[in-house]
Amino acid sequence: MTRTKPRIALFDLDHTLLPIDSDHAWGEFTQVLGWTDPVRFKRRNDEFYQHYQAGTLDVHDYVRFATEALRQRSEAEARAAQRQFMQSVIGPAIRPAALDLVRGHQQAGDLTVIVTATNEFVTRPIADAFGVAELIAVELERGVDGWITGEILGVPSLREGKITRVAKWLVERGLDWHGVETVFYSDSMNDLPLLERVDRPVATNAEARLRAIATQRGWRILDLFTHT
Fold this sequence. Notes:
Blueprint: E1 7-11, H1 22-32, H2 40-54, H3 59-66, H4 68-71, H5 75-93, H6 96-107, E2 111-119, H7 120-129, E3 134-138, E4 140-142, E5 148-152, H8 160-172, E6 181-186, H9 192-197, E7 200-204, H10 208-217, E8 220-222
Parallel strand pairs: 1-2, 1-6, 2-3, 6-7, 7-8
Antiparallel strand pairs: 4-5
Helix pairs in contact: 1-2, 5-7
């Protein structure tokens, strides 16, 4: 009897399951809290976001910048802000269509995984809100005091790093690429390497460049909401 391969549904997060970029939105939220300079921080935050869209982001520099305000506060204060961010920014951005997509895979027996270039501090509560236990995100190094240092732990889950991190995740579960059936949903050209690696790539709310590639290659195109 032929044994069915485990099915794994991989999801990018920002502009794929969410209509916003959670990393950029967190930066804007720190301005609302008064944690960051309203002019200097916004300019730098926007510059980093433009580099991400262009595929030229130095993720190590960005994480140092993005976590600077957190590092200046206690973990308790940071966690309180995180909860407020979830309630006021992320909660209203979670759309039924995205929830239905994830739940449809779960109800079909697929293992669901969010694979994001945004750091774990921002994304762990978001994954929980989607009911996804498995999260592959940028992991943050912690110092002797147990709090984040501003450095990245291990390989960042950005561009080709997503393939590396998913492969590691599979090995940890006694699996490999050939022993599973994979689908990956993403909006971004940054995710082209992983889209090309999986069995079923799905261009989701795709930016123009990715939409053109998906059309040319006959990939599935899915629009949960309008890409901005």
